[in-house]
Fold this sequence. Notes:
Blueprint: E1 4-9, H1 14-24, E2 29-34, H2 40-45, E3 49-51, H3 56-65, E4 68-74, H4 89-92, H5 95-102, H6 106-119, E5 123-125, H7 127-130, E6 139-140, H8 148-166, E7 172-176, E8 179-183, H9 189-195, E9 205-208, E10 222-223, H10 225-233, E11 238-242, E12 247-248, H11 251-261, E13 264-268, H12 270-273
Parallel strand pairs: 1-2, 1-4, 2-3, 4-5, 9-11, 10-12, 11-13
Antiparallel strand pairs: 6-13, 7-8, 7-9
Helix pairs in contact: 5-6, 9-10, 10-11
Amino acid sequence: MSGRLGIIAGAGELPKRIATHAAATGREVFILGLRGFADPALIQEFSGAEAAMGEIGKGIKLLEGAGCKEVVFAGAIQRPDLSALKFDLRGAALIPQLAAAAGKGDDALLRVVLNAFEKAGFKVIGADDVLGSLLAPVGPLGSHRPRDADWVDIRIAAIAALEVGAQDIAQGAIARDGVVVAREARDGTDAMLDRLPASNALLGVLVKLPKPQQERRIDLPTIGVRTVEGIARGGLAGIAVEAGAALVIDQEQVAVAADRLGVFVYGFTKAELA
């Protein structure tokens, strides 16, 4: 550990989980909340500050002023419309790089931002470096496991997930009865699940995988109780992620929800997927 931990926070539960864990281990935390995404209550709780997405210089100064040497990016954000962002001087200097990266995909955009913070002298670490217990374990969370037919869907959905990942679009796909029925778009996993018609079938699997070119310190595949509820509502049998390469928020609660809804949450190995 090196000084106060800076958490560049988007939406969702992940920033709070990291902050609470770090504080519980005796580490001071500073929240740099991204305006329009981060929870204002979290910023207030940890005496942080807010910056807009284009205010790179402001964000760097706030983190430096707080004594942060290490930073972690955590939480969801929506892909920005670069033409609508208001940039400060440091952010404006990145516009050519951001514009070039925008045509390549989300991961390319994130790399530009990550590199800017590294060049400013920060060590960028992953959420799992702070809270390793978030990583998906090998095997089931809960009492349900994939059946033979589910493994067919897992392998087919995994191929589709890697395809959308290779295009730097998203990280997930759904296969049902041996056929890909949905591919995640830029609006995310929850939106993909919301598009599924409600069903009681419990057939099919959601698979989330890191993109082949994934910058693993940012935006690892993440699931939680809401994801479990979404797949059950859509009539899927379960969720499968690569063990050690995805984050599971509130693992105990995820296991409880999976058992309650009769679905599986499974962390597979590469050998199992082969």
